[in-house]
Amino acid sequence: MHDYHMHTHYCRHATGGLADYARAAREKGITEICITPHIPLPGFTPGVFNDRVRMDIGEFGSYLEELERTRALFPDMTILSGIEADFIEGREEQLAEFLSRHSFDLVLMSVHFVGGWPDGEWVFDFSLEGRTLARVYSDYFRSARKGIETGLFDCVAHLDLIKQPGRPVLETNAAEVEGILALCMERGMSVEINTSGTRKEIGEAYPSDDIVRLMIEHRVPLIVGSDAHAPSQVGQGFEELFDRFGAAVELLLVRYRGRRMVSGSSPLLAR
What we know:
Elements lengths: L1 E2 L14 H10 L4 E4 L11 H7 L6 H14 L4 E9 L5 H9 L5 E5 L22 H18 L4 E2 L13 H18 L2 E5 L14 H10 L3 E4 L12 H8 L1 H4 L4 E3 L2 E4 L2 E4 L2
Parallel strand pairs: 1-2, 2-3, 3-4, 4-5, 5-6, 6-7
Antiparallel strand pairs: 8-9, 9-10
Helix pairs in contact: 5-6, 6-7
């Protein structure tokens, strides 16, 4: 079992060092993890968001050094180097340049900021003034689609992060969701089942079970991630997820090595 989405003290809204997360994973029988700090975004606004949730570019070397020390402390585990990289329209060249300078095992794509939205709005704080929720969902999925089309990412993280309580995205935007799943298959990308929503007001994983069923139906490659922001959150929600879906999800799980998707010991896709 793996947990491919976790943050540490380098993300200022998370706590614990890398070894704390590895230790928590081992205690839960998880033998493979991927550390995925939020990518540094120098010069990007809003600055408050940057200051609160991501490392400064100057700290990246320290993160890599701690990663190597943690690997040495836990030789019985596989500890991968990842990054949660925001797709932000207009900053594709900066992202490509950053990724080209570092050797990652996995690059998660997240959409927190939607092109065309007013300054200061993001997926956790937006106004419906002059817009329907279906339109907001559509804007979000349009940005996600553009991110996939760049070819800069390996996996779509928390696909329906934009969803609001009691308003599942498939009610109004099913065609866009299905189009994104088809595009991921075409581009050789996986999609994450992110259990962090079970700890939040939304009360369910990202994506929701109805979308998970679609992914199973279309045999979309999957990873699972707790999006842990504290060691105690590593692997949270996994047991319930596999109780609901069992082998249907397990059979679609993939792993990564050097940004190559692998299943078992055989590469499925060479980037």
